[in-house]
Amino acid sequence: MRRLTPDALVYETLAAGEPQLSHDGTRVAYTLSRANRDRDRSTSQIHVSAIDGSDVHQLTRSGGRNRDARWSPDDAHLAFVSDRVEGHSAIFVLPMAHSGEPRELTRHRQAITSLAWSPDGRSIAYTTAFDPDNPDEQPHPKDRAPRVRVTRRLDYKHDNRGWLNDVRGQVFVLDVDSGERRRLTSEPSDLWYPQWSPDGHTIAARFTRDNGIFSQLALIDVASGNVTHVGPERGGVGVWSWSPSGDRILFDGDTEPTAGADFFLYDVAARTVTRLTTDLPCMPEAGYPLVSAPSQPAWLNDAEVLVHGMRGGESCYYRFNVESSELTREFATRSISVGFSLDATHRFVAQSHSSLDAVGEVAIYDRQTGQRHVITRHNADLLQAAPPARWERFEVERDGASVEAWLLKPADFDPSRTYPVVLDVHGGPHGFYGYAFNNMQQMLASNGFVVVFSNPRGSGSYGREFAQMVRCDWGGEDFLDLMAVLDTALEQPFTDRERTGIWGYSYGGFMTAWTIGHTQRFKAAVCGAPCFDLESMYGTSDISHAWGPYEWGGKPHEASEAFAAHSPSTFAHRATTPTLIMQGEADDRCPIGQGEQMFVALKQAGCEVEFARYPGGAHAMLRVGPPSHRADFLERLLGWFTAHLDPPLPLGEGRG
After folding, report:
1. In a 10 Å sphere around its CB, with 0-12 CB exposed, 13-18 middle and 19+ buried, how is residue 564 labelled?
2. What is the pLDDT of residues 119-164, one digit of tens each?
3. Which residue, among 337, 355, 351, 428, has the nearest Cα to 391 in the 3D structure?
4. CA dist., res. 204 & res. 127, Å (int)
5. What pLDDT band is residue 190 in, cutting at 50, 70 and 90?
6. In this predicted model, what pLDDT tens digit does every residue of 41-100 receive, in sequence order?
7. Residue 486 is inside which H or E element, if any?
8. Are 191 and 218 in contact (CB under 8 A)?
9. Would you say residue 653 has pLDDT above 70?
């Protein structure tokens, strides 16, 4: 039996993403991505199949990255974005009735995202970055020094995008026949994911401030470009959808960043917002800009809406009645899936599928039969040869909270053996773990570790109250929840409490750094992209100036004692745990200085410590970074725990 190695997880695993159902419900188009070892980048091509997964065709072959496939309203054409024009991102349209070459409509020097056909099929709305200081997108001369950077705004940089200053995503409208384009907006902050009204006169998009910490619904008049903002300036909007008649818009969010969401209804004619819920138990899946689009709800009729929401680390389908505010769960998927594409009759739902047993596939849910099937087998051969981990779920009750947790065991698990244990802490802190294939977890389990992960208080997908429990208490009750989860796992006879490790990324990196300063119980730690010092994090992160006061109790001068009390840097001098720190050097979310501070503190404390830095790596490097860097990250993670925790090897294998 093979093991899931870093090389296999990066270079042999395929990812089917962005599945889009044709309006007639007979076909699904999706992007199939893979890591190209020679070019050291991910490449993607667009495929289309019948809705049952049969009759698969690869539609694109030119260019390294083809993505964002979208069916025209009559299913006659497929629009997509491609890099086949050197140095540009371009929109193409491909006829689907017969074989033919795609026709280029327009191009930009920067990335194009969020294609949306108008209801009449004559136009396509999209977003791309616009620089008011360089409206013609002229490249900087290669023989000239970089321009001096001057800013007067706090949100001058953004993770995975770098320096922005006044460059922001704007909405463009493109004429499909002529290829003529028109910039529709000139907003001071980003606009994402345009969505046409049923009559084609208005576009609704997400308008974000402070790099997404605050957001509103932006209603853009297509004729004039005039923008109406819906919702408070310091509120949030996640998903939204026009009613069939276009007289109302359902959206989710809140009036301030509370780490929770509720449903609101906007009356277009009256320009009024009505709050429909006060404690939504699920979290509508709102995507991640430049990585994944939101799962936009679908109106089934004038009163009922189908919603993709997360609950307890699991993707679920809910029906929400806008008149009674009743929420009914229709189906639980036992997966964490992304995307939400429906056919015109709302019978079928297509999503990218990831579960504890599968990864990188497309799943179709048939609402008529109540059945959901994974229709692709892109990684079936790999996972048959190198099986994923066995798993079990458990709960821990502590101090009035129920904490959900999971335990992964090697596929060749032998109950007569004892295994080292690694505690994996998720990011956020309002992120969550659950029924998804996680490369780090599966790699460790496949190579002889028991992996424990959980959703301590503060995690998302359990409602607002649970998520709020971590506010102004980082390293408090959340830390105690995690230790209780680990203690419960260590009650199993096959776990070795003398060989335990901890690892986490982002807020998980914070918790790793916090933990080794508060206990010597762990024999090894791996800390990814940590938040180490709250005060320096506040002034250097792309979002902490806006987000920090909600999480940490104020600005540094207002809450200096709390900042110090909840910073791992305050306690790092007590650490003795051998620790590996890994971080991207272009990380704007948890800047590289956080890892640098931690490295110095641990080194001076006498810890065994290494610091691996990834040039050009953003905070999102584990999702969008070069394959060689992602593989190296996995290799180092596995190597550190193998060296310090000594997992058992399959019979007949030796370490030499």
Report:
1. middle
2. 999 999 999 999 999 999 999 998 999 999 999 999 999 999 999 9
3. 355
4. 12
5. very high
6. 999 999 999 999 999 999 999 999 999 999 999 999 999 999 999 889 999 999 998 767
7. helix 477-489
8. yes
9. no
Among 24, 42, 140, smallest CA distance to 360 is for: 42
Q: For helices 627-645 and 439-446, what crossing angle results, to 10°?
A: 40
Tokens of residue 202, six digits = 């208005």
Cα–Cα distances (Å) from 319 to 329, 456, 519, in that order, read 6, 28, 46
Q: Compute the average pLDDT of residues 628-643.
A: 98
- Residues contacting 278, CB < 8 A, separation 6+: 262
User: In what side-by-side order are the strands of the sheet with 227-230?
Assistant: 191-196, 202-209, 214-221, 227-230
Q: Taking all residues of the chain, what is their mean pLDDT, rounded to a whole number?
A: 96
Question: What is the 3-state secondary structure of 234-259?
Answer: CCEEEEEEECCCCCEEEEEEECCCCC
**Is the bond preceding residue 429 a cis peptide, omega within 30 degrees?**
yes
How many residues appear in the chain?
A: 656
- Say which residue the tokens 């009674």 belong to: 324
Please name the residue that has the structure tokens 């940490």. 552
d(CA 203, CA 277): 25
Q: What's the pLDDT score for residue 291?
A: 82
| Domain spans, the chain | 389-645
Place of tokens 């790099």: 211
φ and ψ of 332, to 5 deg: -110, 130
Strands (E) in 109-167, as ranges, are: 112-117, 123-130, 157-158, 162-163
Sole residue written with tokens 């028991």: 450
Query: How far is residue 236 from each of residues 153, 195, 322, 367, measured CA to CA in Å?
Result: 20, 17, 20, 31
| CATH architecture for residues 389-645 | 3-Layer(aba) Sandwich (3.40)
* Tens digits of residue pLDDT in 605-634: 999 999 999 999 999 999 999 999 999 999
Contacts of 42 (CB under 8 A, 6+ apart): 33, 34, 35, 36, 65, 624, 627
pLDDT at res. 100: 78
Tokens for 108? 């930009």
Tokens of 350: 């297509």
The pLDDT of 393-419, averaged and rounded, is: 96
Task: For residues 373 and 363, give the distance between their C-alpha atoms in angstroms, rounded to a whole number.
Answer: 5
Please, which residues bridge with residue 453 across strands? Answer: 406, 424
Per-residue pLDDT band for 656 (boundaries 50, 70, 90) equals: very low
CA distance 414 to 396: 25
Q: What is the pTM of this model?
A: 0.96
CA–CA separation, 137 and 119 (whole Å): 30
CA-closest candidate to residue 239, choices 194, 297, 318: 297
| Three-state DSSP class for residue 198 | coil
| CA 511 – CA 425 distance, rounded (Å) | 7
Distance CA 75, CA 67 (A): 17
Tell me which amino acid residue 566 is.
H
Among residues of the chain, what percentage have pLDDT more than 90?
Answer: 95
Strand partners, 175: 123
What was the pLDDT predicted at 168? 97
Work out whether strand 327-332 and strand 304-310 pair parallel, antiparallel, or are unpaired: unpaired
User: What tokens does 498 get?
Assistant: 């003398």
**pLDDT tens digits, residue range 312-321?**
999 999 999 9
